[in-house]
């Protein structure tokens, strides 16, 4: 290949404030190991395929030092800057969550979990559209059922590539979604209600009527109200989009039965009131969502235990690999 689209392998250093747990952050991002877009490689590195105007790009991030990640970008040179920026966004490397950690330290039932998962950063989807798809797909479904549906959508509409022998899939954009017929999408497991919501979200994003830059400029309450103008996006879905898509840590998904169940499991006999806990954790109450998610994954045995052992000692002050 020649010109701007010729493939090129480049390496970049991304600074992080230790402690940073790549394995836990990626686990919070992808929810389950069955996620075919966000992948933890056998060596503990994170990999993802991206597609933009320059072409297909494969990124890989690994712990280089306690205070740095090494990010490799395989793709057109012109895509390098955007690819590295996407990794920084997705892994939340620049987010300071010490305010949440201080507040959590005052809650005896929450403190052990936060200490055990120390180094977690709030992950964020690379696009507003991806956040919408995941939030809508996960409405009132188990994490396993919703993850299976999203995987079917991605493998049907995305582009397949690989890093080494590990397959990767790009996340299909709204245009790909709008080009599909309803029966084909329905066969992937989505209800007509969710199909309608996703089509309206895709149309709004593709036309520019719903724009991430506009949402970024709004306070969280106003941004949520703007999202709820789309039929099929209610308070819970809007909160998840803001938290996972725009990185708004000052929101917490309301009336979430899964969150309530996980909170009860972590708190035990303490039985704290969710609303009271959320108020005490403001303005970073959204971090509780990610910690409770990891607690659930830990109980189910789907956290990368080997990866946790791999990173824990180096981040205390040693070489990473």
Keywords, separated by commas or semicolons:
321 residues, Endonuclease III, domain 1, alpha+beta, five-stranded antiparallel β-sheet, two-stranded antiparallel sheet, TATA-Binding Protein, 2 domains
Tell me the number of helical segments per DSSP (H or I, 4 or more residues long): 16
What is CATH's topology name of the largest domain? Endonuclease III, domain 1
Proportion of strand residues: 5-15%
Please give the number of β-strands.
7
Q: Strand order, biggest sheet?
A: 1-5-4-3-2
Q: How far apart, in Å, are the first and last alpha carbons?
A: 33 Å
User: Structural class, judged by helices and strands?
Assistant: alpha+beta
| SSE ordering | EHEEEEHHHHHEEHHHHHHHHHH
- The global form is globular
| CATH class term of the largest domain | Mainly Alpha
Approximately how much helix is present in the residues? 40-55%
Please give the largest β-sheet: 5 strands, antiparallel
User: What's the CATH H-level homologous superfamily of the largest domain?
Assistant: Hypothetical protein, domain 2
What is the alpha-carbon Rg in Å? 19 Å
Q: Domain count, please report it.
A: 2
User: Any idea what the CATH architecture of the largest domain is?
Assistant: Orthogonal Bundle
Unreliable runs: 306-321
